[in-house]
Amino acid sequence: MDWNPNGDITRMTDLGSGVYEFVAAFPKGSYEYKVARGGSWAENYGAGFEKEGANIALNVPVDNTVVRFVVDFNAKTVKDSINHPADVKAPATAPARAAVAAKPSTGPVQVVNIQLARGMTARDITGFMELKIDGDLDRTVYAREFLNDKQFWYSGDDLGSRWSAKSTTFKVWSPVASSVELFLFDNVVDGPSEILDMKRGSAGVWYLTAPGDLHGRYYQYRFKSYNEIRVAADINGYAASQDSKRSVVVNLSRTNPRGWSTPKSTNRPQTESIIYEMHVRDFTIDPSSGVKPEWRGEYLG
Predict the structure, then answer these.
(1) Against a cut of 0.90, is the pTM above it?
(2) Domains in the chain, CATH or no CATH each
(3) Where are the alpha helices (H) located in the chain, listed in sequence order?
(4) Which of 39, 157, 235, 237 could form a disulfide with 6 if both were Cys (CB 3.0 to 4.6 A apart)?
(5) 36, 43 contact by CB (below 8 A)
(6) What is the pLDDT tens value at each position of the chain, 301 positions in all?
(7) Dist. CA 165–CA 162, nearest whole Å
(8) 4: helix, coil or strand?
């Protein structure tokens, strides 16, 4: 296996507070490893947690040795259960996704390739799967690479909420969800005034058309996947509450500022343009801005 800094096979688990771990079963052999952050080698740490430091040696004494790796970005340490047995304890068994079934080749770890008896369907990934290898204990399996399959590619540009005077259509992409509900709120404080079941469409998209003029109504989605419940705002929404916890249905013709639909071009080549970027606070925070003191540095300014 190549050293892929963005691969799912060796992706570490977030334990919280800047600590991550990875557990795998290795065959006997000599290995090297380092930690890549952010899905690329742009930020990586080697021996002694030195940035772009040397590879860390790992000598596995016998086949099927379970090794645990722990990285603490706050303490600036990277340790494993072989080189630091007093600090890092390895579990008795490794997750099935990291079980190694062959001798090492060019990379830090290998995985088991599985030939399915039949192709997976969209329904298959909404529930649990179990895997047994060489008589080992059953393991829970989560489909990951399968989500890259073309059947989950959604080419539409209508995710989010699409308002009209008579109804609003909601669409959200969540292939692994077994059910999705729409929460509608009358304001940003109270609980939902309506809870509506969404329907599963194609490419992992759930949809619902709610009747009436919903301009200004707050909403959230409630997802059920792998027996867990998650409530979230709409990442494709046009507007959100002040804390971004709830999305807002908007009629853009009522929220766009005057002149929004008729932008005026400067008729200058881009190479002659000078573009300034400024934080919203800095527009009005200075006393010379002419804005009311209580509005300075605020959105109202």
Answers:
(1) no
(2) 13-98 (2.60.40.10), 160-255 (2.60.40.10), 267-301 (no CATH)
(3) 252-255
(4) 39
(5) yes
(6) 457 787 777 888 888 888 999 998 899 999 999 999 988 888 999 999 999 999 999 999 998 899 999 999 999 999 999 999 999 998 887 765 444 434 444 444 445 566 666 667 777 778 766 666 555 555 566 666 777 888 889 999 999 999 999 999 999 999 999 999 999 999 999 999 999 999 999 999 999 999 999 999 999 999 998 788 999 999 999 999 999 999 999 999 898 888 888 877 777 787 888 888 888 788 888 888 888 888 888 878 7
(7) 10
(8) coil
CA nearest neighbour of 18 among 86, 91, 70, 88? 70
* Cα–Cα nearest to 74, from 34, 16, 10: 16
CB 151, CB 161: distance < 8 Å: no
Residue 170 structure tokens: 């909601």
User: DSSP class of residue 149?
Assistant: S
Give Cβ neighbours of residue 52 (< 8 Å, ≥ 6 apart): 44, 45, 46
Phi, psi of 36 (to 5 degrees): -110, 135
Q: How far apart are CA 140 and CA 131, in angstroms?
A: 7
